[in-house]
């Protein structure tokens, strides 16, 4: 799903719908991080994940061998703090209502996708190394009993 959100963002970038690009970038980053949480059997309903990432992954001794990757992920995650609301909902500024479409420009949209893609690739590398995933073998657990899995083709 993370990669699909990145692809959607790339399509929207071409049509200059920058707020939607940032939204999909944030969603891709969130879903990548939640894949790590899922492997630790942790469910977080929040969208801003930096604090949870520090608590459950960054400070987890089982991830110390991935220090370089998790340092990078944490730095990139800070970029997305607050973006889910900012990229979707109108805001008041100087007595006027401004929409997300008025806030974002090409640079922010491109940066959002670049950062989301970096997070995706870093998380993917951890999943491959730590959990022995193989390319094309990424699965998503269903939250009901934790035993049922969906393959990419089943989603």
Offer a concise description of the structure.
The protein has 155 residues and is mainly alpha-helical.
Structure report:
The protein is mainly α and 155 residues long. It contains 7 helices and 4 strands. It has helices spanning 2-14, 18-39, 50-58, 67-80, 83-86, 100-103, 106-131, and strands at residues 91-93, 96-98, 140-141, 149-150. The strands form 2 sheets. Strands 1-2 form a two-stranded antiparallel ribbon. Strands 3-4 form a two-stranded antiparallel sheet. It starts with a helix and ends in a 5-residue tail after the last strand.
Keywords:
two-stranded antiparallel sheet, mainly alpha, 7 helices, 155 residues, single chain, two-stranded antiparallel ribbon, disordered C terminus
Helix percentage range: 55-70%
Determine the strand fraction and express it as a percent band: 5-15%
- Given as residue ranges, the uncertain stretches (5+ residues, pLDDT < 50) are 140-155
N-C termini distance: 9 Å
The helix tally amounts to 7
Radius of gyration: 16 Å
**What's the main sheet like?**
2 strands, antiparallel
- What is the arithmetic mean of pLDDT? 87
**Which structural class fits the helix and strand makeup?**
mainly alpha
- The SSE string, one letter per element, is HHHHHEEHHEE
């Amino acid at each position: 799903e993370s990669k699909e959100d990145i692809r959607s963002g790339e399509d929207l970038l071409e049509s200059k719908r920058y707020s939607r690009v940032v939204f999909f970038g944030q969603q891709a980053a969130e879903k990548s991080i939640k894949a790590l949480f899922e492997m630790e059997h942790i469910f977080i309903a929040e969208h801003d994940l930096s604090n949870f990432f520090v608590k459950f992954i960054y400070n987890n001794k089982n991830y110390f061998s991935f220090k370089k990757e998790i340092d990078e992920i944490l730095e990139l995650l800070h970029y997305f703090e607050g973006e889910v609301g900012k990229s979707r909902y109108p805001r008041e500024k100087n007595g006027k209502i401004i929409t997300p479409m008025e806030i974002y420009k090409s640079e922010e949209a491109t940066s959002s996708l670049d950062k989301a893609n970096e997070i995706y690739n870093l998380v993917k590398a951890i999943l491959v190394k730590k959990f022995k995933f193989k390319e094309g073998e990424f699965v998503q657990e269903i939250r009901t009993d934790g035993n049922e899995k969906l393959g990419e083709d089943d989603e």
